[in-house]
Design a protein that fits this description.
By secondary structure, the chain is mainly β. About 10% of the residues lie in helices and about 50% in strands. The chain is built from 1 helix and 11 strands. Strands 9-8-7-10-11 form a 5-stranded antiparallel β-sheet, with helices on one face. It has a 4-stranded antiparallel β-sheet with strand order 2-3-4-5, with no helix packed on it. About 5% of the residues have low confidence. Pfam families: eIF-5a, IF5A-like_N. It is found in: Cytoplasm. It comes from Vespula squamosa (Southern yellow jacket). Its main location: cytoplasm.
Length: about 160
């Protein structure tokens, strides 16, 4: 029999789920839902009448919160859909590295340097405001093991 020291355990997450079930009829516009295994914000919802077989169907249109890609799905209103646990956090921007990573500081003083400048207009605005010397807060959205900066705002708490 192998010694305990020889036993190798795979490390993983805590086992907590990244989603929870919610009845399709309970979902709301501007809420979150998993469509095609992607975390999406619901932008459109319509319910069809009960058909011959007794199920009203809900037509969902969602925008991926990380890629902005549009997804659609139709689900019986009585069925459960997965809803991602979505967490928003604001970080103070302290620096931008040469390779495009943001140096962000949490409220408790912890630093993180694992997020890249977002693509597109938001990234360009962030870089321009930072170079102009503005104190910025970055809103980071976290869901399903992914994180991305979704918004920036001027940090008014520092203005005295």
């Amino acid at each position: 029999m192998a010694d305990i020291e020889d036993t190798h355990f795979e490390t993983g997450d805590s086992g907590a789920s990244v989603t929870y079930p919610m009845q399709c009829s309970a979902l709301r516009k501007n809420g979150f839902v998993m469509l095609k295994s992607r975390p999406c914000k619901i932008v459109e919802m319509s319910t069809s009448k009960t058909g011959k077989h007794g199920h009203a169907k809900v037509h969902l249109v969602g925008i991926d919160i990380f890629t902005s890609k549009k997804y659609e799905d139709i689900c019986p209103s009585t069925h459960n859909m997965d809803v991602p646990f979505v967490k928003r956090e604001d970080y103070q921007l302290t620096d931008i590295s040469d390779d495009g990573y943001l140096c962000l500081m949490a409220d408790n003083g912890d630093l993180r340097e694992d997020l890249k400048i977002p693509d597109g207009e938001l990234g360009a605005q962030l870089r321009a405001d930072f170079e102009a010397g503005k104190e910025l807060l970055c809103t980071v959205l976290k869901a399903c093991g992914e994180e991305v900066v979704i918004a920036i705002k001027t940090n008014t708490a520092l203005d005295k």
